[in-house]
Amino acid sequence: MKYLSLLLLVTGCYQVQDLEIVEPELQQYWQQFQIEAQQLGVQLPRRDVMILVSDDLRQGQRAVCSGTKRYASIRIARGVLPLDGEYDLSVEATVFHELAHGLLDRHHMPVEDGAYDQVSLMCVPAHRPSYHDGTKRDYYIKELFNKL
Ligand SMILES: [Zn+2]
Predict the structure, then answer these.
(1) Is the pLDDT of residue 17 over 80?
(2) Within a domain: 5
(3) Which helix (H) or strand (E) holds 131?
């Protein structure tokens, strides 16, 4: 009987939670995302998280996210990452956008025609110079976590 219950545990009575597979060069962005959530008082859902560097995205594609209520799987195009490994706000924006799909259940938002800056990291295609130069990052982060 002991073995049977152990087997049930292993085979799916309990889902595996908090599995984290994060590529070393993306770890700093994942940590920053969690810091932002914490600072804004947002409890992230317990989902398995995979954040990987990919060599096989479509040309011009920066990232993809797939997921369910149980896991978020994100792939970032290798070409997006700076060669020196420095923290980069445009990479952060890409990773945060995908994590918002995967962990905050956010969807894309329409782009406003002619706007200098868009209103959200969830706007596609991306155009947010004031995020990348850091001047409006706080606004974008609050908007992303629904804390404006
Ligand atoms: Zn997206």
Answers:
(1) no
(2) no
(3) helix 129-132
